Backbone:
């Protein structure tokens, strides 16, 4: 059965929505008035103290402290605005930390940021003025509504009724009776008008706060561009670091593995040649057999190391075929569920990174996890932005951790180099699940 009466609009009244927002809005107006007064006192004292000592070294960090304090007050202001029910204000793009920067550069970074100065101006000048005006209007309007609507209850107990506003009006109208009744009617009318309009007035005041805060405490049009530049720079740095780490690891593995075996193989072949020249063919045959084992071991190691280098199959037939080949070559029983669209959407440099990551994850699972089965799954998400989601999981013992400079940390850097993310879920006892996402180029229109 329909819970609404026939012909009745089930949608809530916009006016009632305004009324429901009145308590939170009034709490914000009162709270922001108190916060702005505290902010004005703190920020003006600290900032002008630092400005007065700018010729001394100590003045600069004091001013920087004022900027950080302004950011804190501005953040509190935006948090309190949530009580009004208005949309949340987006966080601006703050200057990124530069780990390699000098201490002096890090210290003066806020001084070069427009957002810090905007927060300071808002909290030290704009917010106190705006909060004082809105507080006065809101409290006066609410007091008029409450006092006018309840005046008839306590007006009869006031002394000197003849000297009241109602008494003056009554005498002006030639009414000889007590003017309290007329005064109560006038205040009731004022109370009704103020009460009816209170939600609109309060909403208008909070929208004024919200608009100013959005302009001065929110994101600016160039923030998205600045953030994209920072992300691109961070991705480039991560990619360079990841490639450097991979090359160093490959060099180390080649030196410690196949290179040593090939040196041993060369020495064994020289020994075989001498034994044959001396007529000791049985010894030569035995050494030749050992050399064959060394050659096979070197070949196996080279084949394993080649998983870290993009194979011709990747360039010739695409990422789906390359990932399928990895799964088939793995000592684990690997199942693959691969979206064929990735061959068209994944750029070549991203495909090489994904190939390396999957190969490394399956190798680690086979060597260290005790797993017997694994799976590789990919799918493309066509929301904004278009991105690839790839999941590698195994049934091993779990307990995989991210250690800086090793294994999974290097894979995270490689994925971050393409503006992607990699997360690891590996509780003790398993299973281990590694999920990564990378943005893709926009698919062509049909």
Residues:
């Amino acid at each position: 059965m329909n819970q609404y009466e026939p012909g009745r609009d089930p949608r809530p009244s916009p006016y009632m929505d305004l009324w429901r927002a009145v308590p939170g809005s009034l709490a914000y107006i009162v709270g922001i008035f108190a916060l702005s007064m505290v902010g004005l006192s703190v920020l003006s004292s600290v900032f002008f103290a630092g400005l007065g000592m700018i010729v001394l070294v100590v003045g600069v960090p004091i001013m920087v402290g004022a900027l950080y304090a302004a950011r804190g007050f501005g953040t509190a202001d935006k948090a309190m605005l949530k009580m009004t029910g208005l949309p949340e204000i987006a966080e601006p793009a703050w200057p990124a930390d530069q780990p390699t920067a000098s201490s002096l550069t890090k210290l003066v970074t806020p001084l070069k940021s427009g957002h810090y100065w905007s927060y300071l101006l808002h909290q030290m000048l704009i917010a106190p003025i705006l909060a004082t005006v809105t507080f006065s209007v809101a409290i006066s309007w609410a007091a008029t509504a409450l006092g006018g609507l309840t005046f008839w209850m306590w007006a009869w107990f006031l002394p000197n009724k003849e000297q009241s506003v109602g008494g003056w009006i009554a005498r002006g109208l030639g009414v000889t009776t007590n003017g309290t009744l007329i005064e109560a009617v006038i205040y009731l009318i004022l109370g009704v008008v103020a009460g009816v309009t209170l939600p609109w007035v309060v909403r208008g005041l909070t929208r004024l706060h919200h608009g100013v805060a959005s302009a001065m405490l929110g994101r600016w049009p160039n923030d998205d561009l600045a953030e994209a530049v920072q992300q691109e720079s961070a991705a480039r740095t991560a990619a360079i670091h990841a490639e450097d780490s991979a090359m160093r690891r490959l060099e180390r593995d080649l030196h410690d593995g196949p290179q040593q075996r090939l040196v041993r193989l060369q020495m064994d072949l020289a020994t075989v040649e001498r034994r044959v020249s001396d007529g000791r063919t049985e010894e030569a045959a035995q050494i030749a057999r050992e050399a064959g084992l060394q050659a096979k071991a070197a070949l196996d190691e080279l084949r394993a190391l080649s998983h870290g280098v993009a194979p011709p199959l990747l360039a010739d037939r695409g990422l789906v075929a390359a990932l399928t080949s990895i799964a088939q070559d793995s000592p684990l029983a690997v199942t693959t569920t691969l979206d064929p669209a990735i061959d068209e959407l994944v750029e070549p440099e991203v495909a090489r990174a994904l190939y390396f990551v999957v190969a490394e994850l399956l190798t680690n699972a086979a060597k260290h996890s005790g797993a017997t089965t694994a799976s590789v799954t990919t799918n493309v998400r066509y929301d904004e932005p278009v991105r690839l989601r790839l999941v590698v999981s195994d049934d091993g013992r779990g307990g995989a951790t991210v250690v800086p400079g090793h294994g999974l940390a290097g894979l995270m850097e490689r994925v971050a180099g393409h503006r992607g993310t990699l997360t690891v879920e590996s509780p003790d006892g398993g299973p281990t699940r590694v999920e990564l996402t990378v943005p893709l180029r926009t698919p062509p229109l049909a």
In short: The first helix runs from residue 14 to 52. The first strand starts at residue 333 and ends at 337.
